[in-house]
Amino acid sequence: MRGDIAQLMQQAQKMQENMQRAQDEIAALEATGNAGGGMVSVTLGGRMDCRKVRIDPSLFSDPEMAEDLVAAAFNDAVNRINAESQAKMSAATAGMPIPPGMKLPF
Length: 106
Prior knowledge:
By secondary structure, the protein is an alpha+beta fold. The chain is about 55% helix and about 15% strand. Helix 1 (about 1-30) runs antiparallel to helix 2 (about 65-90).
């Protein structure tokens, strides 16, 4: 019984270390979302911080289209960050499923 508890504690410690490492890796991520065939690009960091926005100057004549493309590029970048984050957290939790709706890092 004692050996089981000690082994469980070691597994919990290792998982905690893996989670911290994954969170650090996620914070360092950078993803670029594109829209309009590359006319707009948005680069986000792993904590969903906007790092760069590039808009093709030809879009300035149509502000509504520019707004739509910026939103689409932003959403594309968010989806890319979320996919990479989920992959890193799955690896850190050794495949243990995370409950639906639970966002990591905390």
